């Protein structure tokens, strides 16, 4: 779920439901290109929304709800988490590796060397500069 000011975006299966933030009423449903459950969304520069799915898709939307493009597809990964860290969007899922995309170009720029021994389930930006990752192996890693 993300708050874009005018609308609240809520992932619901393969769709995104938008709720009017003022009236709390249903606005519309976005059903573009998600071939499986949406697992997370991330706002980038108050201009774009990135979404990821359990079947390996990372998609790009404009904040007004238009589908723009498929950013990345890795069918072997069930994406679980997206996190904006500076000028990069970090993505994690059913892998021990974090993928880092340049937010402006949407290009894959880097991957972490595995530090976890199992799937990475969550990412969070702490103190606006450090990313923490949590894994199914019950470990937390801190990335600077």
Provide the fold topology.
Blueprint: E1 2-3, E2 7-12, E3 15-20, E4 26-30, E5 38-44, E6 48-53, E7 57-62, E8 67-73, E9 79-85, E10 88-93, E11 99-102, E12 108-111, E13 120-126, E14 130-135, E15 140-143
Quick summary:
With 144 residues, the protein is an all-beta fold.
Spatial gap, N to C terminus: 26 Å
Low-confidence stretches: none
How many DSSP E strands? 15
Strand order of the largest sheet: 1-2-3-4
Q: Please count the helical segments.
A: 0
Backbone CA Rg = 15 Å
Topology as a string of helices (H) and strands (E): EEEEEEEEEEEEEEE
Helix percentage = under 10%
Mean pLDDT reading:
94
% residues in beta strands? over 45%
Major sheet attributes: 4 strands, antiparallel
What class would the helix/strand composition place it in? mainly beta
**Shape annotation:** globular
Structural write-up:
This protein is mainly β and 144 residues long. The protein is 0% helix and 58% strand. The protein is built from no helices and 15 strands. The chain has strands at residues 2-3, 7-12, 15-20, 26-30, 38-44, 48-53, 57-62, 67-73, 79-85, 88-93, 99-102, 108-111, 120-126, 130-135, 140-143. A four-stranded antiparallel β-sheet has the order 1-2-3-4, with no helix packed on it. The two termini are 26 Å apart. The model has no long low-confidence stretch (mean pLDDT 94).
Please describe the structure with a list of short key phrases separated by commas or semicolons.
144 residues, mainly beta, 58% strand, globular
């Amino acid at each position: 779920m993300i708050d874009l000011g005018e609308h609240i975006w809520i992932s619901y299966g393969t769709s995104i439901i938008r709720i009017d933030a003022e009236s709390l009423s249903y606005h519309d449903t976005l059903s573009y290109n998600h071939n499986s459950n949406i697992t997370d969304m991330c706002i980038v520069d108050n201009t774009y929304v990135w979404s990821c799915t359990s079947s390996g898709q990372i998609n790009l939307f404009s904040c007004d709800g238009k589908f723009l493009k498929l950013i990345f597809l890795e069918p072997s990964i069930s994406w679980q988490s997206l996190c904006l860290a500076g000028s990069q969007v970090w993505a994690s899922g059913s892998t021990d590796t974090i993928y880092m995309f340049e937010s402006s170009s949407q290009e894959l720029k880097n991957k972490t060397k595995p530090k976890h021994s199992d799937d990475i389930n969550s990412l969070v930006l702490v103190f606006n500069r450090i990313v923490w990752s949590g894994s199914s192996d019950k470990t937390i890693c801190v990335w600077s």
